[in-house]
C-alpha cells in the first residue's frame, strides 16, 4: 500500500464510479481496476461490493476511507512541516478549539503571530476536548485550547488567565431570564440540557448537589451551536459555558450561583518533535500570554 494507491481508492469512493474516477485521476480504467484489486489483495479483504452492477463500499471499505483520509492529511501536513524548516518561516499550524469564550484569546494570538510571520497559515478544527485530544494523539492537530479537567500527562501547556464561566443559556422570554444569576434549586423540574463530557458533567453534578434528584435532564450536547437551536425551539435550559457569540435578541446567559468556572489550557504534545514553525509559535504564545 502506498500513498498514490490510497488517493486512487479515495477518489473512487468519492466518485462512486470507477470510470469517472479514472477520468479525474487521468489514468485508464483497466489500470485503476488493477490497482484497486491489488489493494484488496494486499489487505486481504474486499473494499467494494461489485455485485449486480453495484459499486458500493463494504464495511472494510468504509473504515479504510476514514483511515486513508487521515493518513493522507498527515502526509500533507508532514510535507508542509518539513518545508517550513527553510530560512523564511512558513508552513501551516493545525489548531483545535472548543466553542469557548477564550477562543477570542486564541484569535488574537494567531493574528499577532501572522502579522510577524505572514507566510504561516493555519487550520482550525472545532470539537470537544476529548475529540481534540484524540486528534492530537494521531498528530492531526498541533496545538489546542482545551477546557479542564483534561489528562495532561503527555502534554505541555500554558494556563490562560481568563476562566470559562458556567451558566444557563435560555430564551430571552424564559421565566428565569429576569434573574441575575441562577441557583440549582431554580432549575428543579425544568427541561435541562447537560454537556456531553463526563468529566465536566461530574463537576456540574457536584454543583447541583442535593438538588440533583429533582432535576429533569432531557439530553446532552457537545457544541453550543446545536444546543442553542434546541434551547430556542423547545424552551430548554442549557448548562453551558459562556457563549463566545450570542444573539442577544433571542437568548440570555446567566451565571450560576454559587459561581462555577473552569480553567482553559493551551496544550501541545510533549513527546513529539515539533516543527520549527510550531516551536516558534509556542515560544511566541508564552511571551504573548504572559503580558496579556
UniProtKB/TrEMBL annotation:
GO terms for cellular component: cytosol. Keywords: DNA-binding, Transcription, Transcription regulation. PROSITE patterns: HTH_LYSR (PS50931). Pfam families: HTH_1, LysR_substrate. The keyword DNA-binding applies. GO terms for molecular function: DNA binding; DNA-binding transcription factor activity. The keyword Kinase does not apply. It comes from the Bacteria. InterPro entries: HTH-type_LysR_regulators, LysR_HTH_N, LysR_subst-bd, WH-like_DNA-bd_sf, WH_DNA-bd_sf. Residues 1-58 form the HTH lysR-type domain. Belongs to the LysR transcriptional regulatory family. This is HTH lysR-type domain-containing protein. It comes from Phascolarctobacterium succinatutens.
Amino acid at each position: 500500500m502506498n500513498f498514490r494507491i490510497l488517493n486512487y481508492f479515495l477518489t473512487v469512493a468519492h466518485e462512486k464510479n470507477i470510470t469517472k474516477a479514472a477520468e479525474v485521476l487521468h489514468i485508464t480504467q483497466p489500470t485503476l481496476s488493477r490497482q484497486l484489486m491489488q489493494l484488496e489483495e494486499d489487505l486481504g479483504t474486499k473494499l467494494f461490493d461489485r455485485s449486480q452492477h453495484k459499486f458500493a463500499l463494504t464495511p472494510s471499505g468504509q473504515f479504510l476511507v476514514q483511515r486513508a483520509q487521515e493518513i493522507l492529511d498527515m502526509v500533507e501536513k508532514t510535507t508542509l512541516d518539513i518545508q517550513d524548516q527553510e530560512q523564511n518561516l512558513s508552513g501551516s499550524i493545525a489548531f483545535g478549539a472548543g466553542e469557548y469564550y477564550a477562543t477570542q484569546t486564541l484569535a488574537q494570538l494567531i493574528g499577532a503571530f501572522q502579522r510577524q510571520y505572514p507566510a504561516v497559515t493555519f487550520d482550525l478544527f472545532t470539537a470537544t476536548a476529548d475529540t481534540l485530544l484524540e486528534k492530537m494523539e494521531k498528530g492531526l492537530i498541533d496545538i489546542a485550547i482545551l477546557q479542564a479537567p483534561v489528562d495532561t500527562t503527555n502534554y505541555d501547556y500554558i494556563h490562560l488567565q481568563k476562566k470559562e464561566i458556567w451558566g444557563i443559556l435560555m430564551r430571552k422570554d424564559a421565566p428565569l431570564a429576569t434573574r441575575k444569576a441562577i441557583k440549582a434549586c431554580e432549575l428543579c423540574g425544568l427541561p435541562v440540557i447537560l454537556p456531553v463530557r463526563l468529566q465536566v458533567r461530574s463537576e456540574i453534578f457536584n454543583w447541583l448537589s442535593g438538588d440533583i434528584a429533582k432535576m429533569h435532564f432531557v439530553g446532552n450536547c457537545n457544541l453550543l451551536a446545536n444546543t442553542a437551536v434546541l434551547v430556542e425551539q423547545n424552551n430548554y435550559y442549557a448548562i453551558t459555558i459562556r457563549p463566545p457569540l450570542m444573539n442577544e435578541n433571542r437568548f440570555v446567559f446567566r451565571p450560576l450561583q454559587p459561581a462555577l468556572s473552569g480553567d482553559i489550557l493551551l496544550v501541545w504534545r510533549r513527546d513529539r518533535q515539533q516543527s520549527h514553525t510550531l516551536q516558534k509559535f509556542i515560544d511566541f504564545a508564552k511571551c504573548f500570554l504572559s503580558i496579556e
